[in-house]
Amino acid sequence: MRSIIISIVTVVAFLMLTAAASGIEGDEFDSEKMLSDVERKLQLSQKKLQKLKPALDAKSAELKRSIQESIDKGFIELEKLSKKLEDVSKDAEKQMEQALTSEEMMQLRDYLSNIDKDAITKAKETLILEFTALLELTEEQAEKLKPLFEDSFNKLAVMLDQLSEQGMKNWDDFKAKYDDLIKNLREKLQDILNNKQMESFENHSDELKKKIHKTVFI
Q1: Interval 175-217: pLDDT, tens
Q2: How would you class 47 by CB atoms within 10 Å of its CB: exposed for 0-12, middle for 13-18, buried for 19 or more?
Q3: What pLDDT is recorded for position 168?
Q4: Residue 174: how many CB atoms within 10 A of its CB?
Q5: CB of 120 within 8 A of CB of 81?
Q6: pLDDT digits over 84-137, tens only?
Q7: How far apart are CA 78 and CA 26, in angstroms?
Q8: Taking burial as the number of CB atoms within 10 A of a residue's CB, which of 43, 58, 172, 189 is the most buried?
Q9: What is the dihedral of CA 5, 11, 17, 23, to 10 degrees?
Q10: What is the 3-class SS of the chain, one letter each residue?
Q11: Among the listed residues 158, 91, 88, the one whose alpha carbon sits nearest the alpha carbon of residue 124
């Protein structure tokens, strides 16, 4: 009976993950939806909207690409991702600074800033869904562990940001910090996960460490 419940929850998690992944290519960050949002919030004329459209097309493409890159890597380099999205937003603002009023420009900046935050949240949530499906968590386990996983992903993002800020490229130093993070997480998971789930956790942790080493240090 327990194995049936776990299988059902795994299927549900997989469907949620599929929906999240398809959302990247779907409407959430689609340029047409963004254009519609801007029209509704800023009350722009059709002439201004048409001038803004190429910039939003580029913004939409970068949002989807950046989210997918983070998901493919399995971790988020928060500072690098934020800067990449911010740069595209600045390009959009630059293209529109002569066409919009100062108030409209302020509203556009707020909109682009908020959608960047949504994109980063989307990437984090999808990574957690992937982790949930990988470990074959029950519904109760998933609910209980979600805050713990969010905290761990955030701590890893901070570690990677510090690495970038300090210009550190010392793998041994980072590895020690990463191993401490995983050790603390392991201690909290041991009383919640079964042996198979713990094995999956250990395998994923090792694979993620290898990905970070290959992506950041080589």
Answers
A1: 999 999 999 999 999 999 999 999 999 999 999 999 998 888 7
A2: exposed
A3: 57
A4: 20
A5: yes
A6: 999 999 999 998 988 999 999 999 999 999 999 999 999 999 999 999 999 999
A7: 23
A8: 189
A9: -130
A10: CHHHHHHHHHHHHHHHHHHHHHHHHCCCCCHHHHHHHHHHHHCCCHHHHHHHHHHHHHHHHHHHHHHHHHHHHCCCCHHHHHHHHHHHHHHHHHHHCCCCCHHHHHHHHHHHHHHHHHHHHHHHHHHHHHHHHHHCCCHHHHHHHHHHHHHHHHHHHHHHHHHHHHCCCCHHHHHHHHHHHHHHHHHHHCCCCCHHHHHHHHHHHHHHHHHHHHHHHC
A11: 158
Count of residues for the chain? Answer: 218
